[in-house]
């Protein structure tokens, strides 16, 4: 299986951070993330809080393999991933902005987990959100 195919297999699915959120609810919001395949290497991604019916973020992303790196193209800022021993590590490209404010994102994708940390516009956390794959 090609590296990009492994990435896409791990990326597709539904995730949540219940374990993390329930261990410290004042620090971590309970969030659901879904990455639904809508085409060849294209996904509809949604993020929503457990108390909300509608997502707070919804976007289409496409995934490409370029020069040994995996690029997740999205409307806010592209993420560039490289393969490590047991996971993929990614960061947003330099110079990203969201609504006029600097934006930086990091992510780690494992077979059964997806870790994200957005900084800048949201100022959301002091570390990685840890999402476990449910489907």
List the helices and strands and how they pair.
Layout: H1 3-11, E1 13-16, H2 18-23, E2 31-39, E3 42-49, E4 57-66, E5 69-73, E6 79-83, E7 88-92, E8 97-98, E9 101-102, E10 104-109, E11 113-119, E12 129-133
Antiparallel strand pairs: 1-2, 1-12, 2-3, 3-4, 4-5, 5-6, 6-7, 7-10, 8-9, 10-11, 11-12
Walkthrough of the structure:
The structure is a single chain. By secondary structure, this protein is mainly beta. The chain has one domain (about 5-135): Lipocalin (Beta Barrel). About 10% of the residues lie in helices and about 50% in strands. It contains 2 helices and 12 strands; from the N terminus they run αβαβββββββββββ. The chain has helices at about 5-10, 20-25, and strands spanning about 15, 30-40, 40-50, 55-65, 70-75, 80-85, 90, 95-100, 100, 105-110, 115-120, 130-135. The strands form 2 sheets. Strands 1-2-3-4-5-6-7-10-11-12 form a 10-stranded antiparallel β-barrel. A hairpin with a 2-residue loop joins strand 2 and strand 3. The longest helix has 9 residues, at about 5-10. It is globular and about 40 Å long. The two termini are about 20 Å apart. The mean pLDDT is about 95.
Q: What is the 3D shape?
A: globular
Strand segment count: 12
Q: Can you tell me the CATH class? A: Mainly Beta
For the termini, the CA-CA separation is 21 Å
Report on the biggest sheet.
10 strands, antiparallel, barrel
Strand content: over 45%
Spatial extent as radius of gyration: 14 Å
Structural class category: mainly beta
What's the helix count? 2
Helix proportion range: 10-25%
CATH superfamily: CpcT/CpeT domain
Strand order of the largest sheet: 1-2-3-4-5-6-7-10-11-12
- Averaging pLDDT over every residue, what do you get? 93
CATH architecture: Beta Barrel
- Encode the helix/strand succession as letters: HEHEEEEEEEEEEE
Unreliable residue runs: none
How many domains make up the coordinates? 1
Examine the coordinates and then state which fold CATH places here, giving the name of the CATH topology: Lipocalin
